[in-house]
Amino acid sequence: MRILDNYITRSIIKIFLSTIVLFTFLYMLIDAAGHLDDYIANQVSPAVIAQYYLAFLPVIFVQTSPIACLMSVLFTYSSLNNSNEIIALRASGLDFFKITRPALIFGLVITALVFMVNETCVPGAASFSQELKTTRIAPLAAQKELRSTPAIKYLFFYGMDNRLFFIDLFEPATNTIKGLTVIGQDEKQRMTEKIVAHKGEWTGAAWKLTNCQITRYNPEDQTLIGDVPFYKEKTVDLKDSPQDFLRQRSRVSEMNIRDLKLYIKRFKGSGATQALTNLKVDLYQRIAYPFACIVIIFTGLPFTLISGRRKGLTFASLGIAMVIGFLFFVINAVALALGKEGLLPPAAAAGLTPVLFCGAGVYLIRKLF
């Protein structure tokens, strides 16, 4: 069995690495074609370009590993099936799980590796590559993209000076906000002030708020300090600019599980139910996503071990991998959307797709074997 396991594992690893290299090359080729004008116009040095794409390697690995795992396993076992080696293995008394043990172990190893890379490398890599793009590669394009960004509904984030921002509508093209609520906190996350405004406009140095009300609290017992003044117009130095709004909005994608937990903790008690729901869905998705590697392998393996339909199965494996991968990510996207709308609990939204595909795998194994 050890010789057989090593034989199958070597084939899987070889195809997996080849697939990752292919995906990486295609990504860089397509991205370079799209940014070629920026490289020339801004005279970007080869060193900066190399740094930009090297920073993307962890992101590419994490995003493509599930499909690469599935393709490597399907191609390996389809090849064994075409050469009648699967029939020989089953005739020798090996059941489904003994035959597929190398693939399942490989899937678990890659799942652990994706989890580790996603936690340690991806957050910093994503932030660094984005910074290079906006400051060295395409600064003018980044500013133009900022101005053309459509209005954003329900923007929330943790800003400077321990402030929680909740914005009903943010229009980057005009640097205006509607429906603003800002909650100030001390170092122990106790509320110290609350700013509510109907509208806000960025002056270039500060925010000019319209129909604004500022309430100050004693952090010890949360009692009001003085009266609650109302301002028809008031300029407030909130430190955070419109560009900070968009950067803070993308920060969630650059957080690992520990950072995201701390971020969620800051929003507890703020009354931002929708914000907390979205953040919890993102948190559970961070935990569930790496398991896509082992789950879709488990779902796809039964198709390659059907001994009665071997002709052309090696090439059909590509189609099977595409269909399974497409269904997995589409269903997962729908489940996450339902979770963020509050129609599914956050944990259920992140775990629904892996559970469904595991169930489908068990059903196929029982039916076909």
Quick overview:
The protein contains 13 helices and six strands. The chain has helices at residues 2-41, 46-82, 85-91, 96-99, 101-120, 122-137, 139-148, 242-250, 257-267, 273-288, 292-304, 313-340, 346-368, and strands at 152-158, 163-171, 176-185, 191-202, 207-216, 230-236. Helix 1 (2-41) runs parallel beside helix 5, helix 2 (46-82) packs antiparallel against helix 5 and helix 10 (273-288) runs parallel beside helix 13.
Major sheet: arrangement of strands: 1-2-3-4-5-6
- Structural class, judged by helices and strands? alpha+beta
Total number of strands: 6
Please trace the helix and strand order, writing H or E for each element: HHHHHHHEEEEEEHHHHHH
Q: What does the radius of gyration come to?
A: 26 Å
Number of helices: 13
Helical percent range? 55-70%
Describe the biggest sheet?
Answer: 6 strands, antiparallel
Ranges with pLDDT <50 over ≥5 residues?
none
Average pLDDT level: 83
Count of individual domains: 2
Strand content: 5-15%
What is the overall shape? Answer: elongated
N-C termini distance: 21 Å
